[in-house]
Amino acid sequence: MRVRGAGGRRGLGPVVWLLGFASLANDVSSEAIFPLLPLFLAGLGGGIAYLGLVEGSADALASLVKVVAGRYSDRGPRRLLVVGGYGLPAVARAALAAAVRPWNVLAARLVDRVGKGIRSGPRDALLADAAGPENRGRAFGVQRSMDHLGAAMGPLLASLLLALGASLRGTFAVAAGLGLLAPLLLALRLRDPREERGGAAAAARPDRGPLPGAFWRYLALAGLFALGNSSDAFLLARAREVGFEAAGLPLLWAGHHVIKALTGAPGGALSDRVPRRWVVAAGWLAFALAYAGFALARTELEVALLFGFYAVYHGLAEPAERALVADVAGPGARGRAFGWYHGVAGAASLPAGILTGVLWERVGSRTALLTCAALAALAGLGLAAGPGLRHPAGTGAGRGA
User: Fold this and answer.
1) Domain extents for the chain?
2) Staple 122 to which of 77, 78, 173, 347, CB 3.0 to 4.6 Å?
3) Closest among 269, 390, 386 to 330, alpha carbons compared
4) Nearest-angstrom CA–CA distance, 334 and 337
């Protein structure tokens, strides 16, 4: 019998699309700000090392919240955590528009990332519950594609506002207002698929047993990759270093996200057909090649082409990474597993951001970016060469192993 909200091979169901639209609206807001953040911070007196501190510490704080929120969401209510997790960033972006000191930017980014920490695990657990193992990669791919579509629209909006004469602060204020659409949409329409299947009592039965060893092996490699996956703000700073004008950065960022939007759904669907760890490993190795290219690039054309190639990592790896977490964690522990997954990636952001920023300022951007590439390559090779990953009950992994 088909479960309402779960969707079959052709239909993914309302939960997937609602969360996709929420991601789109949130990223229009977020990415209207992000490519301008290094410029805005520099205007307040913050350097590239401070940018690394801001981005790294914000993600590190969010990592702690992700673990707690993911664990709690197995008991419920996932819906309220997701709604609140989209609401906080809109408030933080309004505060960012009023920032007058570098520490104000840090505080606003901390609140923004706490919101992301609250929603990440519960949202991905909702997506996993809404899609069966045969189309789980496709579900995550659709959500990531819509997320990236919003991220492409955001910089275009920022460029339009700046071209019309808006200030950076005015652009940030408009972005904050648009960010309110995501929590409003979810508050009105989102429902938990577990409650539709078996009522609230079924949704409240978490699996309190230990997570399987396959999950921890995968998480260790994901953590190693995250040490090399420093903030994309450094890539925008590299674009400025090569010669891009400030007005061109939002357009460069938008084009990058258009390619990510086009590759997310196919990449997720691919992971439903071949072992997911191979797809993830290929994405991590594409990341390493892209970062090595950024380190060696000398012209604006080379940087623009590299931003396009860098999108291949996102399209291949992002949906498959999340589907793989759902495969190896039992249904009653998915919130906890996603909490750990997002938490470890976030915790690695602080040392990754600081390491990249310090190397950048002391020995140059080339060494900093090549170091990131080396860490990502080690993780990708380790995942490709290591043992397969299996669902604890021996089912549901299939091609996802």
Assistant:
1) 14-395
2) 78
3) 390
4) 5
Tens digits of residue pLDDT in 60-117 = 777 788 888 877 777 767 888 899 999 999 889 888 888 888 888 888 888 888 898 8
pLDDT tens column, 244-296:
887 788 788 778 878 888 888 888 888 888 888 899 999 999 999 999 999 99
Which residues are CB-neighbours of 221 under 8 A, at least 6 positions away? 379, 382, 383, 386
Please give the CATH architecture assigned to the domain spanning 14-395. Up-down Bundle (1.20)
Contacts (Cβ under 8 Å, ≥6 apart) of 345 = 59, 63, 222, 223, 226, 229
Q: Which of 233, 263, 230 has its CA nearest to residue 373?
A: 230
Tell me which amino acid residue 289 is. Answer: L
Rounded CA-CA distance 91/112 in Å is 8
Does the bond joining 351 to the residue before it have cis omega, within 30 degrees of 0?
Answer: no
Can you tell me whether residue 393 is helix, strand or coil?
Answer: coil
